[in-house]
Description:
alpha+beta; 3-stranded antiparallel sheet
Amino acid sequence: MPRWIKLREATRYAAIGKGRLISLAVSGVIRGTQDPDSRRGDWIFDRLSIDEYREAQMTSVSIQQKALEILRR
């Protein structure tokens, strides 16, 4: 799979909607930009930065789950 993927591929890969992906890119959370080679202004995204974003989410979910387990004791 290529490192840089188009918006449609990125939504399937990340399981995140188009608007949210663009928002994450604009805010700098993931790497994405309008493709300078596209006349239509298509968006492209760095697949590795999507992976990093999802991995960070998993870490925070794991920490939250551990905290809830401690509180339930």
